Amino acid sequence: MKITAVEPIGITPALAEQLAADFARRGHEFVCFPDRNEKPEVLAERMADADIVIISNIKLGADVLSRCPKLKMLAVAFTGLDHIDMAYCQSHNIVVKNAAGYATVAVAELAIGLMIDVYRHITALDADTRNCLSRRNFLGREISGKTVGIVGTGAIGRKTAESLQCFGCKILAWSRTRYAELESDNFHYVELDQLMRESDIISLHVPLTAETHHLISAEKMALCKPAAVLINTARGNVVDMNALAVALKEGRLAGAGIDVFEQEPPLPQGHPLFDTPNCVLVPHVGYATREAFDIRIGIVMDKINDFLN
Q1: Which residue range forms the structural domain that includes residue 25?
Q2: pTM for this structure?
Q3: Angle at 114 between CA 291 and CA 164, to 5 degrees
Q4: Which of 165, 178, 183, 250 is buried most, with the most CB atoms less than 10 Å from its CB?
């Protein structure tokens, strides 16, 4: 079979050579393209004669998939699958396997990093310092002792909660699936409205589905304390971004840390969050650590080998 990585997903040239040699010994061909190109016509050309395709979070629709008659498997080097036309894959017997779990620590750490940045204004104060300004009586806030609402208690949500408990935080949680073993003196499942009302920090960790689209709506944000902050390292469309921008500008939320958006960055000029106060924006980097990428490659190769076997 021909196995094609349409983008490098952290595979170094040396590793690509090693993988090609390993697959060749087993009678397969491995090709790894050294750049990321999201143009449908380029993707279709790269995938045209592949039996197995490795791809991360590039949107892959029927317009491309229909031009790949040999395709039998998609090894998705990503956790979510909302960028893949799953209906097409199912109707054409294309096996789709994701890489769940590779970035659990990476995303949890970024969520906490965003909380600290929003509370301590690290990004803004760095700019002030470079502009030869002083503290100017700025006072930050501490995470220690705060009530943090974890929305979604899958692996990343649980890891984030576990880390926050080391700060002495009380955890409120809402999830479609509740895990009794997580309940403790400072971890309690509650309804989403109660979580929104009582949390000092709200951290989102749910997948994007029809049910979670704009789960954090204007109505939900209206329940929050004015001192509350929102952290989103899940999916952009879990939050109504326009409503979030209004809430921040009107002082109904004290801040936000956002890693995910309605589309993959670069964002368009004039995005509603660009001119909001105390809002830290990063271009979808929660999963992007050397350690996570190394784990991801291992998971992807395991899934491909399972399929080949």
Answers
A1: 2-100+289-308
A2: 0.91
A3: 80
A4: 165
